[in-house]
Amino acid sequence: MNRSASGKWWLYAILSVAVVIVSAPFVWMVVGSLKTTSELRRSPPTWLPENATLDNYSQLFSRLDFGTYFFNSTVVAVVVTVGNLLFCSMLGYALAMLDFPGKKALFGVVMATLLIPGVVTFVPLFVLVANAGLVDTLPGLMLPFLAAPFGVFLMRQFILGLPRDLLDAGRVDGAGELRIFARIFLPLCGPALATLGILTFLGSWNNFLWPLVVAQTEQTYTLPVALALYSKGQNATNYGLLLAGATVVVVPVLLVFLAFQRRVIEGIATTGIK
Amino acid sequence: MLALPFCLLFLVFTVWPVLQSLFMSITDTRAKDLRTPFSVDFVGLDNYTRALSDENFLRAVRNTAYFVLVGVPLTLTLALAAAVALDRGISRFRSAFRLGFYTPVVTSIVAVAVVWQFLLNREFGLINTVLGWVGISGPNWLGDPDWAMPALIMMASWRNFGTGMIIFLAGLQAVPWALHEAASIDGASAWQRFRHITLPMLRPTMLFVSVTTMIGYLQFFEEPFVMTNGGPLDSTVSMSLYTYRQFGFGNYGYAASLSYLIFVVVAIVTALQFRALREKE
User: Mind telling me which Pfam families this protein's record contains (chain A) (predicted)?
Assistant: First the structure.
């Protein structure tokens, strides 16, 4: 099989063209962000920037407030990620290793909500957050996402694969339940925690509908909200600025993803096929 | 005790809103009722009957159906083609190709929508420039009611086929190579082997990928929000975008009922797909 497979040069050619097509929008985005808007409006387009300039970026961070949006996106994503790692591993562990009344029902309810679209809950969630006075605050952006069912599923599946003897051994040695979880099981969950952490971080960074509803002034905008609103406002035809903005949104996650791509791809594959 | 923190958050921010949403959908709650929650009236199923006769909502339903019925098969085909090519066709650079195809999935839809809006520009967009090389005069993608939706579908398929590809690749591991070899000795062509061995064995994976892709596409929102604002001539208003607009107008009760209708569609479609793919076994 390998002999015949490596001889298929035409398949390599097709796949290479496909990769070029798939990555072209990103290349075009980065190259475009270095051009002036008047150059971007030219037809036919120029390939490389005539006078490469970082002017678009300096505008983003001086005239517009992308520094703040970047900060907001980062804080929200980090807190949401830490919250999920903590809460989902705790419940995942309890569901996998411990016996308590209502365990099956709890797992069923949590799994059932996996299917519920975010659009179903945002209206009452907004009312809830508004009544708590958290509209237009960072906690308002984070709170609803601190404990997501997906993480419970992922952690439970992983912990089910760990030996139960560890639990008994810990109990025999007289360790408390919390200690058994934190000192024995949690350190063994490294791979699952890494996968969950990255997927949660990416999800939070790219999240849009909820921040769009809750962030109402520029102080609490996250990057996607700011970018979406600028792309419709008075900067709508300032293509250089928008492409630079998109680059600022995309490049950090691309770097995180490239650094941890194995974990992400394995995570998708294992949770995908059960 | 370990379950407590999650359960509290889960109760407040997931279970309660789901129930509250159902409750709101049978009331006439509006934005101004936030401060006076007892002034809302029950209206029974009025919101739902209103939705089913709301020409604008029905338009959004048809647009969403278009997006799903064309977008899901296209995305699945691309995903499966990439997975099969990477699984059996080549032996080197497999992970590099896999990475290249998967990358769009992790990026923000808002950001790629902004970039695509530029790519799709009629005069100086990259897509029409490339089409021009082969003598095709590209349409005014996002400005033409007939072409705006195909453009959104193209972008969504580009962004999302990587997920399906990864899951198909995992599923293909379960297809025994010995079967392929036996069939090819019996004179079966590559296409016949794909059709009669690979496809049937991939059925569970296919089910999973089509259900998750469809659930995602039924809720598409960012693409029209950023790229077309639902236009031109409402040709790209999706159910989620319409729901968001009603919420923006302060019609909370009505928006809640619309969101429940989306939920019902998601649930029905999922159940139907499970049945359709199970029955063939």
Answer: BPD_transp_1 (PF00528)
